[in-house]
């Protein structure tokens, strides 16, 4: 922010090179008095408007398209939109990927670095609350560490400062909502389990970076794993339409590139590498991402068959003019079919990984995590459950480390001697810190009891007085279809905001959606400093014992 202010002043202070007649200045975060006074002293006459719009966070997922949501948030912040509704937000991040290291590394424990990043988090969280017009009761999980309590106190103080100075609200009373702050170690088990829902499974097993997945399909067979493009055309179109389709081949691929659906690259062997962006604007992705992989593999082929039936039905009624219109729509048909096939390919790639290794792991993981086997019998010897995974040469070191961690979590720890033997026998000495450094994450499991106001006030204290009666209670069956007025009910109900210090996983994001669906008068919003996958979390845990200058943090 300081550099931006200095750049603004430089543009106006030198009159000979002045670039603008005037400026409208908007801060996405709170502007310190020192910077505000600096602007005032240097170029106040050139400032037409100066305002803090408080949007120092990133909507990651929502119940509306992300681009539309960001625009809506901006319009709201600029007083050009009435409200940001409770149903708009699902997941948010603060985009601080180095927060895990700065908060949990013992090398920074007694430095100002940890306090500094907690202060930044608090200020960003307040901008989220302000955008949602919430002044929630702030709670945290008490425990050996002071991270959650410190952040909660900082957020509470920042909320007080914001609502005392806000020009619209001045002093705003506590709302019905709650903000719960927890450390990353509150539920270690779910972070290392292999998930079988589409989004979590894909991000865990496939090489997805920056929400982009690259696929390699040889020659003309890139559309489907089991069918060539000509076979696909034969099933969708008659001979006449097949000819039209072939003529539009180049045009359609160009269309897909221009609308950002795929990016094609040709490798030396003649294959095509296809990049697909998994985002909110992809309706099919949003519909499928939280479903079990088996349901995805069942539903997408049905969608393809339905598209085929509709196209054939339209063909039978075609006149010359109608054929012309259909030709114009071909890129759109192609785009719809390509999306369906894309997600089918991703699901099949997930299943390929699952069949090769993960299927055997899942049974072991479930037995260790639950403490019971498939028949409901109590697991008497966790080591006997673990050993087959460790002895299987087809499992890589990451999978074995995840299994060892589940064993440790299920037995509430193990002896140093036993841990040393496990590390030596599996030959993971170089990655042993992925296991050992979990001692720096020390908070137990959180449950959905918060929805029904069952959190023990001793374990989950408020930072200030308790807000008005929590009205998030009232469980409903997840099998019931939500009524049309469900969204309106949530606007007048309570919101539970959960913030995880040091990263949130895709399985936890899915859980937030599921709880929202199950409770008609409450909306759960989950957020963190950044998004984690199991592998990324293990790498970050490993880095905790390294000096700061040896840690490389990748942007989100």
Describe this structure in words.
- It contains 21 helices and 14 strands.
- The chain is of the alpha/beta class and 556 residues long.
- It folds into four domains: 51 residues, Sec1/Munc18 (SM) protein, domain 1 (Rossmann fold); 237 residues, Sec1/Munc18 (SM) protein, domain 2 (Rossmann fold, 3-Layer(aba) Sandwich); 159 residues, Sec1/Munc18 (SM) protein, domain 3a (Syntaxin Binding Protein 1, Chain A, domain 2); 60 residues, Serine Threonine Protein Phosphatase 5, Tetratricopeptide repeat (Alpha Horseshoe), CATH 1.25.40.
- The chain has a six-stranded mixed β-sheet, sandwiched between helices.
- It is globular and about 75 Å long.
- It starts with a helix and ends in a 13-residue tail after the last helix.
